[in-house]
Amino acid sequence: MDPKVTEVSQLFERFKAAFIRNDFDTCSKLLSQLKVLLTEFRSLPPLFEETPNAVHELTLARDIYEHAVVLSVKIEDQDAFERDFFQLKPYYTDARGCLPPSPQEYPILGLNLLRLLVQNRIAEFHTELELLSASAMENNCIKHAVELEQSFMEGAYNRVLSARQTVPHETYVYFMDLLAKTVRDEIAGCSEKAYDSLSINDARKILLFSSDKELFEYVKEEHPEWEIKNGFVIFQKAKESAPCKEIPSLQLINQTLSYARELERIV
Amino acid sequence: MTQDVEMKEQPAPSNSVTSVGPSTLQHLKEIASLIETGAYAREVRRIVRVVRLTIALRKKLKASVLSAFLNYALVSGSEVHSRLSSYLPKEDEQDMEVDTATSTTQAPVKHPLPELEIYCYLLVLIFLIDQKRYNEAKACSSASIARLKNLNRRTIDVLAARLYFYYSLSYELTGDLAEIRGNLLSLHRIATLRHDELGQETLLNLLLRNYLHYNLFDQAEKLRSKAPRFEAHSNQQFCRYLFYLGKIRTIQLEYTDAKESLLQAARKAPAAALGFRVQCNKWAVIVRLLLGEIPERTVFMQKGMEKALRPYFELTNAVRIGDLELFKAVAEKFSGTFSSDGTHNLIVRLRHNVIRTGLRNISISYSRISLADVAKKLRLDSPNPIADAESIVAKAIRDGAIDATLDHAKGWMVSKETGDIYSTNEPQIAFNSRIAFCLNMHNEAVRALRFPPNSHKEKESAEKRRERQQQEQELAKHIAEEDDDEF
Q1: In a domain, B64, yes or no
Q2: CATH number at residue B392
Q3: I need a surface site. Which of A81, A98, A111, B128 has the fewest CB within 10 A?
Q4: Which of A82, A142, A154, A186 to mutate to test the interface with B (most CBs of B within 10 A)?
Q5: A3-193: CATH number
Q6: pTM of this prediction?
């Protein structure tokens, strides 16, 4: 076998060992070494040269990047996740023809969907979704993310939260926790508009806090404009869109002038 | 050598040809001479006319006519000639010989122009595609593209743009669109460097089509936003561009812009392009639904589209009523159509709109309603419908879909009185957007008008003309003097 491949394989074994020990510092160090070594393989994207052991090298590289993505979730680094995922993606799309499918593919794609959801990048979420085949949509991991997005858009927040119990993969928990935070902010935003006031008890339940103290702290930090009085949380209603008394004169003048100009051009 | 042989054949009788043959052939010959004059005079307009005339002839193309034309236009025995002839079927050998004879009655062209050569490629390619011989079409188009890369003449650009189109089409028909992506990109680059705007336009569309074929919306958008833009040269290409743009924007949730592009594409498309207009309408309907609008019934009743738009009509109906069950039933009933249209994921997104519409209807009808009833009316099937209903209503209130408040302790929703809309700026804004639309439409129409060249000069009075000529002469003299100075 090619000495380079052997070297990478050995290093990768050490990485996996460290990975199982949850020794993430060593993992990160080994990973950066691995990535440098991978650049020497000419069969990998973007070159895709057909070297004799291309399949072997591609599989190895894909394996390494899959681990890199999972590692980035474990060390809770979203930027690293994005970087590693984009490096991994060509192995799923462009190298599909020459590699056996990876069992990790759908969990990782689902994870990425979840990340986009957490970061509120809905447009990219849908762009990614379009790339998936009908059979992929049936997969549990993908379906989970898709259903979450739907519940999220509808506003059925308790469904989003209960989905945490049914995560298809342990790595999903990190993002689900982040999502819970996003959901809380959303609920707070909605409640502010929808209710005049809530009893502290109800507010705590709606905003998913386990104790009143947490609620008070949250209100103090995030929504200082809310008032807590006589066991009620009173929301200061945002100024209603009062009937317009003032005429937006400047805008009107501009519009009228532009009509005049256009009409002149026609006549 | 070959010239000599043809010369000898010249006096051969030419009246034994079939009735269709000569007329089509005659047309082709006329086109060829048009190309020649166009090429020598460097008049791109003539070449544009050639393309139009060719499309009219398309149905009449036959192997015998084509090979006769090839013999006429190209030097027989040359590389191009033998290559193109090899694509044509050989079975009607008899006819061919006769036609060869007719062709040689004309004086053969000694040095075929590159324009003529490319035109022959185009003809053969169209013929092969019409005969459904896609693999040969692929080979033929690839050869033509290889040839095109070495030619840099403005008069070829128009023909080249057509060739690019058929090149991509032949690969699409055999399902190998991904193969030519790199090639198209390099062609686009070449076209950009040569300032071939029509070529750029065509190639950009082909690339977008290529990406969208594989649902690569991200790549398509990146290319689109970075490719140079200029005033459209061809209406058809512009329509296509708008359609692809609309699709990309729909996927990326920019519904307002998407709607504009799709509707414009549908309006601008020629009446004959029914399939294209149907596609535009399908997407436009969904985008409008996603925006919370309900398309008018007339949209679905357009001539020739009723059947194709039927699933979308029923879908619209479900959204309009705000009935989740009906919506699910429709989505399931036509799931085949929707997934072949590539709109399945969009329809999944619509669920949210169905709920919104239902909620709006409830909010209008009831001044106060319990959340349990809301859940029942919306037919939310979940383990905890009341909590779901509460948060859904809360979100709808925040997004401004309904104007109401919630009472958590009593578990009901209170709708607010709708204010007088005429006391706000709303009517003014709506009015403004309509005026802007009309003015824009007028301007576009004016811009789209075609004027014959020099028409403005004819109006010029004799006096003015004299004045101008005098000025020109002076200028010429001036330049000549300057030239003299240099020596």
Answers
A1: yes
A2: 1.10.10.10
A3: A98
A4: A154
A5: 1.25.40.990
A6: 0.79
